[in-house]
Amino acid sequence: GFDTISGGVSISFLIYLVENNLGIEKIKQHLKDINIEEIKWGNGELILKLIDKISMRDGIGDVLAEGVRIMAEKFEVDPELAAHVKGLEMPMHDPRAYAGQALTYMTSCVGASHEKCDWFSVEMGSVPYTNLRIKPGDNQKIDRREKGVMALQDIRAIDDSAVNCNFRNPELVDFIGYINAATGFNYNKKSLVKVGERINNIKRVISCKLGITRADDKLAGINTRVLQEGKIAGIKLDLEHNLKRYYKERQWDWETGKPTEEKLKELGIL
After folding, report:
1. With the CA atoms of 241, 244, 246 and 249 taken in that order, what torsion angle do they form, in degrees rounded to the nearest 10?
2. Is the pTM higher than 0.85?
Protein backbone atom coordinates (compact mmCIF):
# COMPACT_ATOMS: atom_id res chain seq x y z
CA GLY A 1 0.00 0.00 0.00
CA PHE A 2 0.87 3.69 -0.17
CA ASP A 3 1.41 5.27 3.22
CA THR A 4 0.40 8.91 3.33
CA ILE A 5 3.01 9.90 5.92
CA SER A 6 5.98 8.09 4.37
CA GLY A 7 4.91 9.12 0.88
CA GLY A 8 4.50 12.76 1.86
CA VAL A 9 7.79 12.93 3.75
CA SER A 10 9.65 11.28 0.86
CA ILE A 11 8.25 13.78 -1.63
CA SER A 12 9.01 16.72 0.65
CA PHE A 13 12.56 15.40 1.17
CA LEU A 14 13.12 15.41 -2.60
CA ILE A 15 11.88 19.00 -2.82
CA TYR A 16 14.05 20.00 0.16
CA LEU A 17 17.15 18.53 -1.46
CA VAL A 18 16.56 20.22 -4.80
CA GLU A 19 15.75 23.61 -3.25
CA ASN A 20 18.95 23.38 -1.19
CA ASN A 21 21.03 22.19 -4.16
CA LEU A 22 21.90 18.87 -2.52
CA GLY A 23 22.44 15.59 -4.39
CA ILE A 24 21.40 17.23 -7.64
CA GLU A 25 23.54 15.14 -10.01
CA LYS A 26 22.36 11.87 -8.47
CA ILE A 27 18.75 13.04 -8.52
CA LYS A 28 19.00 13.96 -12.21
CA GLN A 29 20.09 10.41 -13.02
CA HIS A 30 16.67 9.15 -11.96
CA LEU A 31 14.52 11.82 -13.62
CA LYS A 32 12.74 10.77 -16.80
CA ASP A 33 9.89 13.07 -17.82
CA ILE A 34 10.34 15.54 -14.95
CA ASN A 35 12.54 18.61 -15.25
CA ILE A 36 14.61 19.51 -12.20
CA GLU A 37 13.11 23.02 -12.37
CA GLU A 38 9.65 21.54 -11.68
CA ILE A 39 10.73 20.23 -8.29
CA LYS A 40 9.80 23.07 -5.98
CA TRP A 41 7.55 23.68 -2.98
CA GLY A 42 3.93 24.41 -3.87
CA ASN A 43 3.89 22.61 -7.22
CA GLY A 44 0.75 20.52 -6.76
CA GLU A 45 0.90 19.01 -10.24
CA LEU A 46 4.40 17.72 -9.52
CA ILE A 47 3.25 16.09 -6.27
CA LEU A 48 0.42 14.27 -8.04
CA LYS A 49 2.85 13.12 -10.71
CA LEU A 50 5.29 11.88 -8.07
CA ILE A 51 2.53 9.92 -6.32
CA ASP A 52 1.85 8.11 -9.58
CA LYS A 53 5.54 7.46 -10.12
CA ILE A 54 5.99 6.09 -6.60
CA SER A 55 2.98 3.80 -7.09
CA MET A 56 4.38 2.49 -10.37
CA ARG A 57 8.03 2.60 -9.17
CA ASP A 58 8.77 4.59 -12.30
CA GLY A 59 11.93 6.68 -12.63
CA ILE A 60 12.51 8.87 -9.57
CA GLY A 61 9.49 7.19 -7.99
CA ASP A 62 11.44 3.95 -7.69
CA VAL A 63 13.84 5.66 -5.29
CA LEU A 64 11.17 7.60 -3.39
CA ALA A 65 9.25 4.36 -2.83
CA GLU A 66 12.13 3.18 -0.63
CA GLY A 67 11.75 6.10 1.79
CA VAL A 68 14.05 8.85 2.98
CA ARG A 69 16.78 6.66 4.49
CA ILE A 70 17.44 4.99 1.13
CA MET A 71 16.98 8.29 -0.71
CA ALA A 72 19.80 9.81 1.35
CA GLU A 73 22.05 6.86 0.48
CA LYS A 74 21.29 6.87 -3.24
CA PHE A 75 21.47 10.65 -3.62
CA GLU A 76 24.65 10.71 -1.48
CA VAL A 77 23.51 13.39 0.95
CA ASP A 78 23.99 13.73 4.71
CA PRO A 79 21.88 10.96 6.33
CA GLU A 80 21.08 13.30 9.24
CA LEU A 81 18.88 15.28 6.84
CA ALA A 82 16.54 12.31 6.38
CA ALA A 83 13.63 12.58 8.83
CA HIS A 84 13.11 9.01 10.04
CA VAL A 85 13.67 6.63 12.94
CA LYS A 86 14.67 3.05 12.11
CA GLY A 87 13.68 3.72 8.51
CA LEU A 88 10.13 4.93 9.23
CA GLU A 89 9.46 8.53 8.23
CA MET A 90 8.69 11.18 10.84
CA PRO A 91 5.01 12.23 11.25
CA MET A 92 3.95 15.85 11.68
CA HIS A 93 4.05 15.73 15.51
CA ASP A 94 7.33 17.54 16.11
CA PRO A 95 9.38 16.18 19.06
CA ARG A 96 10.54 19.72 19.84
CA ALA A 97 6.90 20.66 20.46
CA TYR A 98 6.09 17.46 22.36
CA ALA A 99 9.28 16.25 24.00
CA GLY A 100 7.64 13.06 25.27
CA GLN A 101 6.94 12.19 21.65
CA ALA A 102 10.70 12.19 21.00
CA LEU A 103 11.16 9.39 23.50
CA THR A 104 8.49 7.19 21.97
CA TYR A 105 9.74 7.77 18.41
CA MET A 106 13.22 6.75 19.53
CA THR A 107 12.20 3.59 21.37
CA SER A 108 9.34 2.29 19.23
CA CYS A 109 10.10 -1.02 17.54
CA VAL A 110 8.82 0.32 14.21
CA GLY A 111 10.45 3.75 14.48
CA ALA A 112 8.73 7.12 14.20
CA SER A 113 5.10 6.08 14.62
CA HIS A 114 2.67 8.49 16.27
CA GLU A 115 0.34 5.57 17.01
CA LYS A 116 2.65 3.47 19.19
CA CYS A 117 2.45 6.21 21.82
CA ASP A 118 0.56 9.40 20.98
CA TRP A 119 2.09 11.58 23.68
CA PHE A 120 0.93 14.68 21.82
CA SER A 121 -2.63 13.58 22.71
CA VAL A 122 -1.63 13.55 26.37
CA GLU A 123 -0.35 17.11 26.11
CA MET A 124 -3.67 18.15 24.56
CA GLY A 125 -5.55 16.60 27.49
CA SER A 126 -7.41 13.92 25.54
CA VAL A 127 -5.98 10.78 27.24
CA PRO A 128 -7.78 10.02 30.55
CA TYR A 129 -5.15 7.79 32.18
CA THR A 130 -3.64 10.12 34.78
CA ASN A 131 -3.56 7.33 37.39
CA LEU A 132 -0.89 5.67 35.23
CA ARG A 133 1.24 8.84 35.30
CA ILE A 134 0.00 9.60 31.82
CA LYS A 135 -0.72 13.29 32.23
CA PRO A 136 0.15 16.61 30.58
CA GLY A 137 2.81 18.96 31.86
CA ASP A 138 5.58 21.04 30.35
CA ASN A 139 5.34 19.70 26.81
CA GLN A 140 8.95 20.63 26.05
CA LYS A 141 10.47 18.55 28.86
CA ILE A 142 10.62 14.78 29.32
CA ASP A 143 12.17 14.63 32.80
CA ARG A 144 10.30 12.46 35.30
CA ARG A 145 7.78 11.47 32.65
CA GLU A 146 9.50 8.37 31.30
CA LYS A 147 7.10 6.15 33.26
CA GLY A 148 4.14 7.89 31.68
CA VAL A 149 5.54 7.38 28.19
CA MET A 150 6.18 3.71 28.99
CA ALA A 151 2.66 3.23 30.36
CA LEU A 152 1.04 4.76 27.27
CA GLN A 153 3.26 2.64 25.02
CA ASP A 154 2.03 -0.42 26.91
CA ILE A 155 -1.61 0.67 26.67
CA ARG A 156 -1.21 1.21 22.91
CA ALA A 157 0.35 -2.26 22.56
CA ILE A 158 -2.86 -3.66 24.05
CA ASP A 159 -4.92 -1.47 21.71
CA ASP A 160 -3.03 -2.90 18.73
CA SER A 161 -3.50 -6.48 19.92
CA ALA A 162 -7.21 -5.94 20.63
CA VAL A 163 -7.66 -4.09 17.29
CA ASN A 164 -8.85 -0.94 19.05
CA CYS A 165 -8.74 2.56 17.63
CA ASN A 166 -5.94 4.36 19.46
CA PHE A 167 -7.78 7.64 19.60
CA ARG A 168 -11.04 6.54 21.24
CA ASN A 169 -9.47 6.62 24.73
CA PRO A 170 -12.19 5.10 26.93
CA GLU A 171 -11.93 5.47 30.69
CA LEU A 172 -9.57 2.84 32.07
CA VAL A 173 -12.34 1.01 33.94
CA ASP A 174 -14.33 0.70 30.69
CA PHE A 175 -11.24 -0.34 28.74
CA ILE A 176 -10.52 -3.15 31.22
CA GLY A 177 -14.20 -4.10 31.26
CA TYR A 178 -14.60 -4.71 27.56
CA ILE A 179 -11.24 -6.49 27.29
CA ASN A 180 -12.42 -8.87 30.03
CA ALA A 181 -15.84 -9.26 28.41
CA ALA A 182 -14.30 -10.12 25.05
CA THR A 183 -11.61 -12.49 26.35
CA GLY A 184 -13.11 -14.07 29.45
CA PHE A 185 -10.06 -13.05 31.48
CA ASN A 186 -10.20 -11.12 34.74
CA TYR A 187 -7.66 -8.35 34.29
CA ASN A 188 -7.31 -5.43 36.65
CA LYS A 189 -5.37 -2.25 35.94
CA LYS A 190 -2.02 -3.66 37.03
CA SER A 191 -2.30 -7.01 35.26
CA LEU A 192 -3.58 -5.52 32.01
CA VAL A 193 -0.79 -2.95 31.79
CA LYS A 194 1.64 -5.81 32.47
CA VAL A 195 0.31 -7.52 29.31
CA GLY A 196 1.23 -4.41 27.33
CA GLU A 197 4.66 -4.36 28.93
CA ARG A 198 5.18 -7.98 27.94
CA ILE A 199 4.13 -7.25 24.36
CA ASN A 200 6.60 -4.36 24.05
CA ASN A 201 9.44 -6.41 25.53
CA ILE A 202 8.77 -9.32 23.17
CA LYS A 203 8.87 -6.85 20.28
CA ARG A 204 12.16 -5.49 21.59
CA VAL A 205 13.67 -8.98 21.86
CA ILE A 206 12.69 -9.73 18.26
CA SER A 207 14.02 -6.35 17.09
CA CYS A 208 17.36 -6.98 18.81
CA LYS A 209 17.60 -10.42 17.19
CA LEU A 210 17.11 -8.66 13.85
CA GLY A 211 19.99 -6.28 14.57
CA ILE A 212 18.47 -3.30 16.40
CA THR A 213 20.75 -1.80 19.06
CA ARG A 214 20.75 1.29 21.27
CA ALA A 215 22.40 3.17 18.40
CA ASP A 216 19.11 2.90 16.49
CA ASP A 217 17.14 4.59 19.28
CA LYS A 218 17.80 8.10 17.99
CA LEU A 219 16.26 10.98 16.10
CA ALA A 220 17.76 12.36 12.91
CA GLY A 221 19.70 15.60 13.22
CA ILE A 222 17.14 17.49 11.16
CA ASN A 223 14.51 16.78 13.83
CA THR A 224 16.63 17.90 16.78
CA ARG A 225 18.33 21.02 15.47
CA VAL A 226 17.46 24.19 17.33
CA LEU A 227 15.11 26.37 15.30
CA GLN A 228 15.56 30.12 15.13
CA GLU A 229 11.93 31.09 14.65
CA GLY A 230 8.41 29.86 15.31
CA LYS A 231 6.68 28.61 18.46
CA ILE A 232 9.40 26.05 19.20
CA ALA A 233 12.33 28.37 18.53
CA GLY A 234 15.26 27.77 20.86
CA ILE A 235 14.09 24.34 22.05
CA LYS A 236 16.98 21.92 22.63
CA LEU A 237 16.28 18.33 23.64
CA ASP A 238 18.58 16.40 25.99
CA LEU A 239 17.68 13.03 24.52
CA GLU A 240 20.50 10.80 25.78
CA HIS A 241 19.81 11.72 29.40
CA ASN A 242 16.14 10.87 29.03
CA LEU A 243 16.87 7.72 27.06
CA LYS A 244 19.08 6.50 29.92
CA ARG A 245 16.25 7.05 32.38
CA TYR A 246 13.85 5.24 30.07
CA TYR A 247 16.22 2.26 29.72
CA LYS A 248 16.56 2.13 33.50
CA GLU A 249 12.79 2.07 33.98
CA ARG A 250 12.32 -0.53 31.22
CA GLN A 251 15.24 -2.57 32.58
CA TRP A 252 16.96 -2.61 29.20
CA ASP A 253 20.73 -2.94 29.05
CA TRP A 254 22.34 0.41 28.20
CA GLU A 255 25.21 -1.15 26.26
CA THR A 256 23.26 -3.61 24.11
CA GLY A 257 19.75 -2.18 24.09
CA LYS A 258 18.36 -5.60 25.05
CA PRO A 259 15.88 -6.28 27.86
CA THR A 260 17.71 -7.75 30.84
CA GLU A 261 17.35 -11.42 31.66
CA GLU A 262 15.76 -10.46 34.97
CA LYS A 263 13.07 -8.40 33.24
CA LEU A 264 12.28 -11.18 30.76
CA LYS A 265 11.94 -13.68 33.60
CA GLU A 266 9.71 -11.29 35.54
CA LEU A 267 7.41 -11.00 32.52
CA GLY A 268 7.36 -14.77 31.92
CA ILE A 269 9.10 -14.44 28.56
CA LEU A 270 12.02 -16.63 29.69
Report:
1. -130
2. yes
